[in-house]
Specification:
By secondary structure, the chain is of the alpha/beta class. Helix content is 62%, strand content 6%. The protein contains 21 helices and eight strands. It has a six-stranded mixed β-sheet, with helices on both faces. Strands 3-4 form a two-stranded antiparallel ribbon. The longest helix is centred in the middle third of the chain and has 40 residues, at 207-246.
């Protein structure tokens, strides 16, 4: 069978795009290896129990339970909260599905989340490049921004879910750019479906559903706008149901509703005053974080600094492209060169020649730049509603990648805009570095494996999974966040912290409830202990340990900064 010239050209185009995708797709792997080397280690020595990112423990043990036993047999929660159904913590269980599928196929171990995160980012970049098909200038810009995006690299080398979210965003952005370039009618359908899944992962990803909704409204007018309401409301409802049935309550609400209460209780004027006051104190707090980011590289402040710089660059490009679009449109419609700096016939030749699609290119940029501005501003508003800016800033990491994609596909003549973003990334995450202990990459010590194996043996000898009406609290270990004791002579209070990394050795299926000292002390005073969980892990020294020993309990597991007691 003879292939036509058109078919050969199409095959050649696909092969070139695949090659471009492979080249850029390998950059994250190179970044991971280089980052480890710069920090004095290697990729093989990355070790979750050495990390200070303690959310990794919950993610790891929940997926381990899903892979090995179908569902966790104990509850994951905070101050012994629990989900209405099954056993998950405060986050959507949809976040766990990619890891779970990998674990079911290839097995689940300490290094699996790290390897999976790296592979997902490599795949996400490759898919984005294949779908968006950037030119060589854009590829260069994207490659540089990938190398300098240290937060993305740091999260790859962790057991956090941010890399999975970045992967979802990269595929989404690739499909969006492909649609704007090709105008395929079925692409918004994919964008709706993909962003629906993203929304089930995290509620603020609802922002991504608004872009295909806008595209559909532009194409199909009122009918499209009406139809777009259903998937958007479906995504929001889906997440709300997941959170209601499968999410355990956090220590405090993840999003503050005080401003709504003000409107309901005290009326519109008092409510508006309260809302404006909240915005004022948030921005004051945000400026403090940004200042600290400049001064010391403090992680949350540095992320917001780069985020704001990206927003300003995208907004300026949007304004410039509005003028460009009006220029080309007027020239095309009237045949008169608006500025008077060029002969009309020369301008028309330019428009009808190699740049005959100039209007469409600028129009496409206006779409994704406008989406960037809207989503960046809306995400800052979402962070305002979070209970503390430090936690909220972590979620901006996904949008740093979204901003990188948008900036890479802008008009790159001169590289001015891209250079400003690149320098800001280099300054905050290269020269300054992540100024927070949690984000420092740590490596496996020579005795770490032996310590974890020893603790695993102790746990297996003393803790047995109770399958009766599981999940249940007999399969739950309380993880005491911290404790303290006061020196009787000096009156000085000393804070002690549980070495929670020992909990990685818990038998598969056990749940973990992260509890605060006040809650625990309230429930172990008096003759009767009212804690629901069967086991409690606390620091070696502290008021909780003293109280338990006073009541006659003896530790069934003991390691440095860690004691485990059986309560019943």
């Amino acid at each position: 069978m003879q292939i036509s010239d058109e078919g050969i050209a199409r095959i050649k185009e696909i092969l070139i795009r695949l090659l471009k995708a492979l080249i850029l797709g390998l950059i994250p792997l190179g970044c991971a290896i280089s980052y480890c080397a710069i920090k004095g280690g290697s990729l093989s020595r990355v070790y979750l129990p050495s990390s200070d990112l303690n959310d990794e423990l919950f993610y790891y043990k929940q997926v381990e339970a899903l892979v090995n036993g179908g569902i966790p047999k104990g509850y994951f929660g905070f101050n012994e909260s629990r989900a209405l159904s099954l056993s998950f913590a405060a986050w959507s269980p949809v976040l766990l599905l990619p890891w779970t599928l990998i674990g079911l196929v290839f097995g689940w171990g300490i290094m699996t989340p790290v390897i999976t995160n790296i592979l997902f980012i490599c795949l996400g970049v490759g898919v984005f490049v294949f779908l968006a098909d950037p030119d060589h200038k854009s590829m260069f810009v994207l490659g540089v921004l990938l190398v300098l995006n240290v937060p993305n690299t740091r999260y790859m080398l962790s057991g956090m879910s941010e890399s999975l979210c970045v992967f979802m965003a990269l595929v989404y952005m690739g499909a969006a750019f492909m649609y704007l370039k090709s105008k395929k009618k079925d692409c918004p359908v994919f964008l709706f479906v993909w962003s629906f899944i993203m929304t089930l992962m995290r509620p603020y990803f609802l922002l991504f559903m608004l872009f295909p909704a806008f595209l559909t409204a532009v194409r199909y007018k009122k009918k499209g706008a009406l139809l777009s309401v259903f998937p958007v409301m479906g995504g929001l409802t889906g997440y709300a149901l997941l959170k209601h049935f499968f999410g355990a309550a956090y220590f405090t609400p993840l999003f503050s509703a005080d401003w709504i209460t003000g409107f309901v209780k005290y009326g519109p004027f008092t409510g508006l005053k309260g809302l404006l006051s909240r915005f004022y104190y948030f921005f004051k707090n945000m400026v403090d974080h940004m200042t600290e980011g400049v001064r010391s590289g403090y992680f949350s402040g540095a992320v917001i600094d780069v985020y704001v710089i990206m927003l300003i660059i995208i907004a300026l490009s949007f304004v410039m492209d509005i003028f460009k679009y009006r220029y080309w449109k007027k020239l095309n419609e009237t045949g008169v060169e608006p500025s008077g700096r060029m002969k009309a016939e020369d301008a028309l030749k330019l428009l009808k020649g190699k740049n005959k699609d100039t209007i469409e290119k600028v129009k496409a940029r206006l779409f994704y730049e406008g989406f960037g501005i809207f989503s960046f501003i809306a995400m800052i508003a979402a962070v305002i509603m979070m209970y503390k800016i430090y936690e909220g800033s972590r979620h901006l990491v996904v949008f740093l990648m979204v901003g990188s994609c948008i900036i890479a596909l802008m008009d790159t003549s001169g590289f001015k805009k891209a250079s400003i973003v690149a320098v800001s990334l280099l300054f905050f995450f290269g020269i300054k570095g992540p100024g927070h202990a949690e984000y420092e990459l740590k490596f496996k010590a020579p005795d770490d494996d032996a310590r974890l194996a020893k603790m695993s043996q102790v746990f297996n000898d003393n803790l047995k999974v109770d399958y009766t009406e599981a999940p249940n609290y007999d399969n739950v270990v309380i993880w005491t966040v911290n404790d303290s004791f006061t020196d009787t002579e000096t009156g000085k209070e000393t804070i002690t912290v549980t070495d929670w990394t020992r909990l990685y050795a818990l038998p598969s299926g056990f749940g973990i409830s992260c509890c605060q000292k006040d809650y625990i002390m309230e429930n172990i005073k008096g003759d009767e202990i009212t804690l629901k969980s069967k086991y409690i892990a606390c620091p070696e020294e502290g008021d909780i340990e003293s109280l338990l020993e006073e009541k006659g309990f003896e530790p069934i597991a003991h390691d440095k900064d860690f004691k485990l007691y059986k309560l019943r």
